[in-house]
Structure formats: structure tokens, C-alpha cells
Amino acid sequence: MADTVTGPIPEAPDAVPEFPMPRADRCPFDPPPALKELQEQGPLTKVRLWDGSEPWLVTRYAEQRALLGDPRVSADTDSPGYPTKASPEAGEGKLSFIMMDDPEHARLRRMVTAPFAIKRVEALRPAVQRIVDGLIDDLLAGPRPADLVEQFALPLPSLVICELLGVPYDDHAFFQDHTKTMVHRDATPEQRGQAGREVAAYLAGLLGKRLADPREDLLSSIAGRVTAGEIDHRQATEMALLLLIAGHETTANMIALGTHALLQHPDQLALLRETDDPALVASAVEELLRYLHITHLGRRRAVTEDIEIAGQVIKAGEGVIMVNEIANRDPDVFPDPDRLDITRDARRHVAFGFGVHQCLGQPLARMELQVVYGTLYRRIPTLASAVPPEDVRFKHDAFIYGVHELPVTW
Amino acid sequence: MKVELEADKCVASGQCVVAAMQVFDQDDDGIAILLEEQVGPGLVDDVREAVAVCPAAAIRLVEQ
């Protein structure tokens, strides 16, 4: 009969959860509740992305580290199964070596590692301290309330990366605004592409100047690699773009989001305000990196050979997403993980990722955050939020999480 | 105990230097170098931390 049902009965729409998930109202510092539920259920689960693809979401610390350290996973966005964050623009360039695999990744990365060595970064600490002191002087001399993002959190890392690269700080409004578009999830692919091309063209111009007239900065060092025939102009520009964006947007968000988190945890803020122990300040930086997590859309990879992990086989051509935010709340590694405790040992967090792509600029980010967290609350002991917490707007809609603005008073 | 470092795996994150400054340093390009191959009980915990946080799994601590 024509209406006889044959074969398997079609299943109801399955329960593959969509990713990313929303955070809970009033819990802006915690991972989305649905992510925590998935973590409790097991280390691996399929999720559905914006384009209908269904990569694996890896929810636990041990499995995330194992996969991020595995040479059979690819960071190349062109690898089959790579889980993309948003629709790419046709012909969109790559953000240099973070979207490549070894050996080319290692070759390019090693060209720019020198300035981020611990001793080189430590040598910059007095200069960063002077910048922080100057920004706080300006803040205190200005009107109240003030936006901590615009007047402190964004200028500091921008000034530092400009100095390191040799980009004129006077151009900061240009590259900060364009970066906002590039990391905005709801920007159209065309808008993101256009913003990226404009900053790239600007940096290509600066690289051209350094080729002709080298100075003591990182752009000149990159230009030198072009002269030596090790990379071409396009590769040099992509590298400069990566360093400029990664150098200011991430740290800026950690400064403002970290300050907001501390203002909401007065006991922890008091510990920081009253200490002059660099070890406690360093510990606070690690704990805030663990507790907050600005790269909330996860580290993404494609698997190039079948990998057996946690009783599952991830097949070649499947995508994997490691949300480090949830790994940093894994109770097997961090007891009472949802509590902010600047005295705990949080050094094993994966806020900077893991594996060969782990953040290149982490020594610089750590040092900047140590100077900020060790100075701001001591210099302005009465620092307070100028708006109720529910009025603070969070960057749910950006690739990098944080606060849009943070009105403060004192 | 003996510390082993595979420098060709190093990605210059600097994590080992932060964890165990008496045992690790970096060359001009940020690549890890070993200052002490043999470590006594006073430094073993620091080296264990370096092993745990090295993102490239380039460090090993070997019982002798």
C-alpha cells in the first residue's frame, strides 16, 4: 500500500546541540550552563555549527590538551572538516602561521619569537610601568565616571605593541576600530574582509618604509626576512597583522573583564589592593586567565588521520573544537573550579591554548597584566563600578569576549 | 634526576623559564636551553611544573 511505512521510522530532529551556546543571565564570567552539562556527560560530544556542520566538542582538560598537542590535528582552515567560526569571504587571506601546520608554521613563527623571550619582556617592564602610571594619572585628572576600556584597557596594550612593532601610536583609532569589525561575529564577511584589507594595506605601507630604512623594531626585523628572501611581502604583511591584532585586542579585554570580575569579588580585589608581593600578583594573573576566558569560541582544528580518544574514534576529515574556558573549569584539575581564588595555583590553565600554537605573546601579556593588576587597584583604592552590574554590556557577539565599556568611578 | 630537552620541538612559549628559572633559559630566538642537566630534590618540583606546562611536550624528567 502506498501509505505503508517502510524502513526505519524517521527520528525526531536529533538532539545535537548548537554551538556556541548562550551564557546564563547574570553569570557573565561563567561558561554557558549547557557547556557545563556537556562536560559532566563526557569528554566528547557532537555539536552543530552555524553552517550545519557537526564537529566534535571537546569538554575536558586532559582530552583538550591531548588533541591540541597531537600532530594529526590541523590548524589549517582549508583542511577538510575545519570548523569555521563564520562565513569566510571568498579569497580571504589567512592570519599567518596560526592558520598553518608544521613545518611551515614553525618556520614562520620562529622568525618573530625573539622579542617575546622572558628576559626581553622583563626588560620592558619598567617602560610598561611608566605607561600604566601615566594612564592612571590621566584617568585621575579627568572627569568621573570614566570608561576604563577606552581610557586604560585599550590604550595600554596598543601602546606596547605599537612600540614593539614600530607602528605609530597616533594611528591607534584606525587599527582599533578596524580590529573591532574583524572580531565582530555579526559583521558581514565583506565588512570583515574590508577591515582586514585596510589594516593589511596600512601595514604593508609601513613594511615598505622599513625595507628602505630599517629601525630597531619588529617590523624592520620582519622586513629583513623579506630582503633575505625567506618570506614574501604578503607573508610579511599577514605576520604583522597577526601581531598587531593579537597584541592589543586580547590583553585589552583581559584588563577590563578582569577588573569587572574583581569589582564583583570584593574579597579578592582587597587581597590584590593590599599586597606588594609580586608572587601574589602573578598568581592573580594566572587565576584570572583561568577563571575568565576571552577566546570563548574555542580553539578549532581538523583531524587529518583517525584518532582514538576517550573511547571514540574521531575520523580524518572531522572537526574538533576545544573550548579552553570549559577545560579551565574541569573539576578534575581545578578543585571548586567556579570559585575565583587568586591564591590558588592556576598555572596549568589553558587560557593561551596548548600545543605548538600556544600563544606566542603570552610572556608579554602576563607581564602587562601583572603590572596592571599590581598597580591599578593600589593607586585607585576606591575604584568602583559606576553602573549596576546588569548594565555592563558583554561582547557575546565577538570572537574575543570582554566588555564593550566599563564605566568606573572612584 | 636528569632533565631532557628536545629543543627542535620548542615553540618558544617561555613557560619552562617561568616555572624553573634556575634550570631553563632561552636563546636569542626564545628557544629553550638547559642550564642544569642534573637536578636535585630542591628543583624537581619546579621542573615537574615545567614538564606539565610545556605546550610542545619538549621536556622530560628521567629517574636515574
From TrEMBL, chain A:
Metal-binding is among the record's keywords: yes
Alphabetic keyword roster: Heme, Iron, Metal-binding, Monooxygenase, Oxidoreductase
Similarity field: Belongs to the cytochrome P450 family.
SUPFAM superfamilies noted in UniProt: Cytochrome P450 (SSF48264)
Gene Ontology MF annotations: heme binding; iron ion binding; monooxygenase activity; oxidoreductase activity, acting on paired donors, with incorporation or reduction of molecular oxygen
A Pfam cross-reference name: p450
Protein name: Cytochrome P450
Span list, region Disordered: 1-34, 69-90
Organism ancestry: Bacteria, Bacillati, Actinomycetota, Actinomycetes, Kitasatosporales
PANTHER family, A to Z: CYTOCHROME P450 YJIB-RELATED (PTHR46696:SF1), P450, PUTATIVE (EUROFUNG)-RELATED (PTHR46696)
Entry-linked InterPro entries: Cyt_P450, Cyt_P450_B, Cyt_P450_CS, Cyt_P450_sf
TrEMBL record, chain B:
Keyword Metal-binding applies: yes
Alphabetized GO MF terms: 3 iron, 4 sulfur cluster binding; metal ion binding
Keyword list, A-Z: 3Fe-4S, Electron transport, Iron, Iron-sulfur, Metal-binding, Transport
UniProt-listed Pfam families: Fer4_15
Cofactor: [3Fe-4S] cluster
PANTHER family to which the protein is assigned, alphabetical: FERREDOXIN
Protein's name according to its UniProt entry: Ferredoxin
Organism: Streptomyces aurantiogriseus
Lineage: Bacteria, Bacillati, Actinomycetota, Actinomycetes, Kitasatosporales
